[in-house]
Amino acid sequence: MTANVLRTPDERFQNLPEFSFPPHYQQVQDDSLGSLRMHYLDEGPRDAPVVLMLHGEPTWCYLYRKLIPPLVAAGYRAVAPDHIGFGRSDKLAARSDYSYQRHVEWLGQLLTALDLRRITLVCQDWGGPIGLRILSEMPQRFDAVLATNTLLPNCEPPPRGVADWPGTIVRDWVHLTRNLTDLPIGETVSSVAVWPLSSEVRRAYDAPFPDPSYKAAALEFPALIPIHPHLPGVAENRRAWEFLERFEKPFLTAFSDADPSTKAWEKVFRERVPGAKKQAHVEIAHAGHFVQEEQGEVLAEALLGLLNRLYR
């Protein structure tokens, strides 16, 4: 381990509620940073269709613990990575070492190394901006998408984008975190929930971060959101949207009813993606931004409906 790469001690992940899944690791390469260890959960038959579940800011794969058991019971393979900087993955100590493009490249390396195919992408929060870019670059690996409380920022007016993007909530979040040196992770997740999370669950979200030095990714992720047309990622996202406008495979939306930050993107996905036209879209009640945490069972039901229509 080099001085600018941190690794959370394993004991931090012991005895977390509802989380007994064994860890898996894959090395990903970076031209400047060298080799980094990326963690992922991998449950279910290895030859089954894959459900790739991508978390966002400031969570980790713990977020998907309620979806994995029903997916495996139904015969599917559930894969849930931790982005570099989160969960059990390596963490870069310098905020400047993180970029939107690097997150896309690291995830792409993981999918290639594991040779994942017949993928249904489940993306929430930053899982959308990263995962939908990967979908547009590796379309042959994907069969379907479930988008929940996510976005693909393009800084375009309606109907191609969202009016008044980024809006007060996202803009304030970007400005707030820009100069922070610490962030209460568990409290942050709980703050956008309909009901406050228990102390045990908040502790689980805090687990990857023993002290503020481990939180560079969590602090920097908001600043990477393309909120102006000149920022990195806008051109690439617009190309991804061009791909999505030709994507005819199933594209289901399952946004919650009380998400304060991404709800407006639901309509854009439904109207611009051909594969969304005939889907049984759902709105999940009684959930804030992290719908997997508050209504994971309901989200799993919508996901299984999509999978069973696709493969059964």
UniProtKB/TrEMBL annotation:
Keywords assigned by UniProt, alphabetized: Hydrolase
Primary enzyme class: hydrolase
Pfam families tied to this protein: Abhydrolase_1 (PF00561)
Keyword Hydrolase: yes
E.C. number: 3.8.1.5
Residues of the signal peptide: none
Annotated ranges, domain AB hydrolase-1: 49-155
GO molecular function annotation: epoxide hydrolase activity; haloalkane dehalogenase activity
Gene3D superfamilies from the UniProt entry: alpha/beta hydrolase (3.40.50.1820)
Official protein name in the record: Haloalkane dehalogenase
Provenance organism: Denitratisoma oestradiolicum
